[in-house]
Amino acid sequence: MEVQQKRKLLEAVETLVRRPASTTETTLAEALAYFKMLVEEATQGQIEVIYNDTTQELPF
Q: Is 6 in contact with 17 (CB distance < 8 Å)?
C-alpha cells in the first residue's frame, strides 16, 4: 500500500470522525476500500476483508 493511499484512508477517517455531516458516499467508499487494502496487506493475505453490498462495487 502506497503512502498516498494511506493518506486517503486517514483523510476519509478524519472526515468520518470530525465532520460526519460532510461525509459522502465517496468518503465511505474510500474508507472501506483503503481499510480493506491495509488489513490484507498488513496480514499478507491471512485476513480477507469482504463487504457484502449487492447494490454496487467499490470504486477501486
A: no
Single-letter amino acid, residue 15: T
Q: For residues 19 and 46, give the distance between their C-alpha atoms in angstroms, rounded to a whole number.
A: 33
Q: Which whole number is the average pLDDT over 22-35? A: 92
Distance of CA 59 to the CA centre of its chain: 10
Q: pLDDT tens digits, residue range 4-20? A: 999 999 999 999 999 99
Residue with cell 474510500: 30
Report the predicted TM-score, pTM, of the whole model to 2 decimal places.
0.78
Element (H, E) at 28: helix 25-42
What is the Cα gyration radius of the chain?
12
Do 35 and 54 form a contact (C-beta atoms < 8 A)? no
